[in-house]
Amino acid sequence: MQKKIKVGISNHHVHLTKEVYEQLFNEELTLRNKLHQIGEYASNQTVDIKCGDKELKSLRIIGPFRSYNQVEISASDARKLGVKPPVRKSGQVEGSVPVTIIGPKGSVSLDEGVIIANRHVHFSFSDAKEYGIIDDEPLYIKVKGEKSGVLDAVAKVSANGFLELHIDTDDAFAFLLNNEDEVEVYTAKQDL
User: Fold this and answer.
1) Domains contained in the chain, number
2) Are 145 and 98 in the same domain?
3) Residue 59 has what DSSP assignment?
4) What are the φ/ψ torsions at residue 130 (nearest 5 degrees)?
5) Predicted pLDDT at 1
6) What pTM value is reported for the model?
7) What is the average pLDDT value for the chain, to the nearest integer?
8) Which long-range contacts (CB under 8 A, 24 or more apart) does 187-190 make?
9) Distance CA 49, CA 99 (A)
10) 74 and 139 co-located in one domain
11) How confident is the model at residue 192, as a pLDDT?
12) What is the pLDDT of residue 110?
């Protein structure tokens, strides 16, 4: 498979359960703007996070509520915090870095939750069928331009998937990529 898709850049953010959110806020989670992934949105609410004695401010909460609590940061953020989180698929927080999440109402300390999200390409079930892709399949992303190169990624197939590459700010800076830029996706490295 070789397909041109658009880039979506993720800044650091958090996913929370309703229970943890209610320990941090005395207000409803409200929509700031919709995201491309169907049903997901950036909320108006933000939290601070603390790892040890170091802190990051104003991480946006992504809705809707999840069945797990997760803080997604970049490697640059991790250096500022002095931690080494694992690179993981969203939702796989077992054994990850502990964190304290701070809201206006209070704080919650978690034994795990901080990860660096792996690079991934979102596919809906119909897109995955059309391109012969399965969930977690390795993919190769070809970036053209002044700082060209190849990125490894994985397929993320879901009912609400909107076809796009998700990378963090570090990857975007390294390859001079912006939201909505186009890259090429391949299923076999030798096809690049």
Assistant:
1) 2
2) no
3) E
4) -60, -40
5) 67
6) 0.93
7) 96
8) 187/1, 187/132, 187/133, 187/137, 187/138, 187/139, 187/140, 188/140, 189/140, 189/150
9) 7
10) no
11) 77
12) 98
